[in-house]
Design a protein that fits this description.
Layout (H helix, E strand, L loop, with lengths): L3 E8 L5 H14 L3 E5 L8 H4 L4 E7 L5 H12 L3 E5 H5 L6 H7 L1 E5 L6 E7 L13 E5 L3 E4 L4 E8 L12 E11 L2 E6 L7 H4 L1 H15 L1 H7 L15
Parallel strand pairs: 1-2, 1-3, 3-4, 4-11
Antiparallel strand pairs: 5-8, 6-7, 6-9, 9-10, 10-11
């Protein structure tokens, strides 16, 4: 049986959600997935339907999400459904929903210099299946500065500062570009690359990382089933929802 993915796209059009969603669907189809694209958050309304998926892909910048839908994502991913996304489509999706930020592992706060900043993406985990065999590469796009969850596993990073802005008076820092984390039994993958769809053409390693990240995230459900993992160990605190 083919794995199933739901890509929900929308929000701010500047991040070209329709183009990136179509690209991600194509990449998933190449791996035998049945990938559905939805242009409404109502696709997150039915928890039972979400639990049938192997992967959720977020392509929704800014906007708001009903609390019920956010809870459904938290529970579905906690049960093993993967979550993957890029740029503002996942880590600048719903600025007022701190639970969403908790699930994803980070939140965009700035991109000093705007679009067109040239910077290096440094591969930190050459043995990880998402970045294996890849070398450092150059990107010319927005240079994302994020507030991050210290629990994430950083696969690639970039050096700040690259342009003069207020933060330049601080010490240089290495900012994550791609990471993984877990949420319950689910796997979460994020990359800050993808301001415009053509970033994946101009920097082919960016597309490779995104594709592999989606594949990795989608494997959490089958792993949980194969290893007898359940959500019971998390449910004692579900009253917080």
């Amino acid at each position: 049986m083919a794995k199933r993915a739901l890509i929900f796209q929308g929000g701010w059009d500047g991040h070209e959600p329709k183009l990136t969603s179509a690209r991600f669907a194509r990449l998933l189809n190449e791996e035998g997935f049945e990938a559905e694209i939805s242009d409404t958050l109502d696709s997150l309304k039915d928890l039972d339907e979400l639990l049938k998926l192997d992967l959720l892909v977020a392509c929704w910048t800014m906007g708001g999400i009903p609390a019920e839908y956010s809870r459904n994502v938290a529970k579905a991913v906690g049960a093993g459904v993967g979550l993957a996304g890029c740029h503002g489509g996942m880590c600048d999706s719903f600025r007022n929903d701190t639970e969403w930020q908790f699930i994803t592992g980070g939140q965009w706060v700035s991109h000093p210099g705007g679009d067109g900043v040239e910077y290096t993406v440094n591969i930190l985990s050459p043995s990880n299946p998402i970045t294996a065999g890849l070398s450092d590469f150059i990107v010319k796009s927005e240079h994302y500065y994020l507030h991050i969850d210290p629990a994430i596993e950083v696969l690639a990073s970039t050096r700040f500062p690259s342009v003069a802005y207020y933060h330049i008076s601080n010490k240089p820092v290495d900012m994550p570009v791609a990471w993984t984390k877990t949420w319950g039994n689910g796997r979460v993958f994020y990359t800050s690359l993808g301001h415009h769809d053509d970033v994946f053409d101009l920097s082919p390693n960016a597309e490779i990382i995104m594709k592999r990240g989606m594949m990795w995230a989608s494997g959490g459900k089958s792993y949980a089933v194969a290893n007898g993992l359940t959500t019971s160990r998390f449910e004692s605190n579900l009253k917080m929802y």
